[in-house]
Design brief:
The protein has 118 residues and is mostly beta strands. Helix content is 0%, strand content 53%.
Length: 118
Amino acid sequence: VQLVQSGAELRNPGASVKVSCKASGYTFTSYYIDWVRQAPGQGLEWMGRIDPEDGGTKYAQKFQGRVTFTADTSTSTAYVELSSLRSEDTAVYYCARNVKPPSYLDSWGQGTQVTVSS
């Protein structure tokens, strides 16, 4: 099992960013993809998840309206897009595989640094 994420991003405040997570080594639609972030000096923060099988999503309340999860089953790739970026969104963003029904994250991507700065 491998989850490989896209590279570091630098954005201005107010911009958007889209991070990818390419899965391999398993059946993409048989697991959820969760997204978690970690800001400097902070703990892990769960953002939500997507079911690649039907595109169903669940967002943490904090991120509703500003985050969009998508999944492309033809390339086994999940995406997170965060809009209206602010400095507090500076963090390492991780994708992780979650079992069905969702209970624990058993495989993680390497993380993508997103920096929001003018």
